[in-house]
Amino acid sequence: MFDSKAFLARLTQRPGVYQMQDAAGELLYIGKAKNLKKRVSSYFRATGLTVKTQALVSHIADIDVTVTNSETEALLLEQNLIKEYRPPYNILLRDDKSYPYIFISEKEDYPVLTFHRGTKRKKGRYFGPFPSRAAVNDSLNILQKIFRIRSCDNAFFRNRSRPCLQYQIKRCSAPCVEAVSAEAYAEDIRHASMFLEGKSRTIMKELATQMEAAAASLDFERAVIYRDQISSLQLIQEQQYVFGDSGDADVMGCAMQPGGVCVHVLFVRGGRIVGSKALHPKVSVEDSESTVLSAFIAQWYIGNTREIPDQVICSHDLEDQDCLEEALSERRGKKIHLSSRVKAERAGWQKLALTNAEQHLSSHLASKQNIYKRFLSLQEVFGLDEVPKRLECFDISHTSGEATVASCVVFDRNGPLKKDYRTFNIEGITGGDDYAAMHQALMRRYTRIKKGEGVLPDILLIDGGKGQVTQAVKVLEELQITEVQIIGVAKGASRKAGFETLIMAENNEEVVLASDSAALHLIQHIRDEAHRFAITGHRARRGKARNQSKLEGISGVGPKRRRELLKHFGGIPAIERASVEEIAKVTTISPALADEIYAALHPEV
């Protein structure tokens, strides 16, 4: 039993970080405080604690304290510790991937405009971040349509002798064949950059002047191009219903209801909303929108490597606003404004973020309740002792035996657990042998789980008939896993949705549920998700295999030599027809390497 009175009696009032642990020494919660004694004492007061906080306190066996020089320093340390240990009672974000940007290259006669994600190593300008690939693609489509800037990679660009399809559909001005001058193209690049900076009105004024000048000089063809660009920009402005003249901001709305929380983030760049994202963070101790937002903002920016905009606008006042503002400013190296009391366009963004958070949360809770009802129905249909907590489903995908991939998708009582999804590239089997593929995937998956690298499901669903189910039974028997129920999901005689036959591995019995059964709907949902995920993995693997150059994998032939070979011969077929002597004529290829390249391209010789 943790002696809170004795602990609090000697606790300092300085700022710092506290780490609560259970009897096994496992971390339960990490927090920061301006006054450690005052903050930690609040957990042990007699009244006013939420149910979740009471549950946390009941498990505390020890508390470690780290004193810091300031509250800001404590906040930075707290986020580093949360990121490393991910304690169960802290607010945790599943979405920790990097966000995409639009990239415009530099120091080229004809710069490229393209999608970018990851480290910013290339020389050029980066615009963003955008909330998703789809948001980037939308902007790229607009820019290509209005300004006709190339998006192809440099290898494709340098080896063109005539314009590609993008030129034919008026999405590119064909700089690859110099159909546009470098000066005119540079002007289009400048306008595209201004558009991404939110300066559409300035662009339209410039284009109007240029249109008048072109018309005055009787260059009506050029005047028509300017007119169309102005019309397109005007249409985009009309569609952008919330618009400001300038400024970058992330606008965060938070909504709470019993059972869930939603934080909706609007991304405003150059005064224009470029996208949004709804997140449902796991919340344990936070009991108000203000505390949720404080924890969310700290983890969103400090616990990850996201770009911090000039402003962060919140739907609610934050108690530790000054501390967060100082930490974010220190992180970016520039003053950041964090506010909740805003006017004009910013008030409109704020209201929009909050409205979206409320709507997403209502939909999310309704969906969770519906999924839980389906789990209850599954328990009832199969006579289980308790409601299942975890389901896994496997499926196999290939094209005539090529690039076989197995998928594993996972559902819990809240729906899909996408972070636990897995794909398996199947190797070493006869092409098209679905039974062997299923056996390999299941063996790899559950061998890892037996080693402690995952959690066993309550029910294992197999997309297939008795043959696939037999493989599942063999694998689990071999691994001595007895607590998992295996069910096959086979297409019925009509092969239509709603008429599936369920194969119970326990007694080899076939069960057909009513088409309106909530349990069947759950099984169909996870089966369809496994099918979708398997096809996605298969297509990616097949595409990679088909797109791989035959020159890759040849020892001594790196990217530079591959480019030289392709530039010299014009393509793989010509290299395959070339003799050893002809290959050796490429400046970077020695006679010995030419012999190796020839042998690799003609293994039958």
Automatic annotation (TrEMBL):
UniProt GO MF annotations: DNA binding; excinuclease ABC activity
Compartments where located: Cytoplasm
Domain GIY-YIG: 13-91
Record's GO cellular component terms: cytoplasm; excinuclease repair complex
Superkingdom, natural source: Bacteria
Record's keyword terms, sorted: Cytoplasm, DNA damage, DNA excision, DNA repair, Excision nuclease, SOS response
Domain UVR span(s) in chain numbering: 201-236
Primary site of residence: cytoplasm
UvrC family homology region profile domain mapped to chain residues: 251-476
Family annotation (Pfam families): GIY-YIG, HHH_5, UVR, UvrC_RNaseH, UvrC_RNaseH_dom
Gene Ontology annotations of biological process type: nucleotide-excision repair; SOS response
Alphabetical list of InterPro entries matching this protein: GIY-YIG_endonuc, GIY-YIG_endonuc_sf, GIY-YIG_UvrC_Cho, Hlx-hairpin-Hlx_DNA-bd_motif, RuvA_2-like, UVR_dom, UVR_dom_sf, UvrABC_protein_C
Oligomeric form and interacting partners: Interacts with UvrB in an incision complex.
Described purpose of this protein according to its UniProt entry: The UvrABC repair system catalyzes the recognition and processing of DNA lesions. UvrC both incises the 5' and 3' sides of the lesion. The N-terminal half is responsible for the 3' incision and the C-terminal half is responsible for the 5' incision.
Stated family: Belongs to the UvrC family.
Name of this chain's protein: UvrABC system protein C
Species whose genome carries this gene: Neptunomonas antarctica
Gene assigned in the entry: uvrC
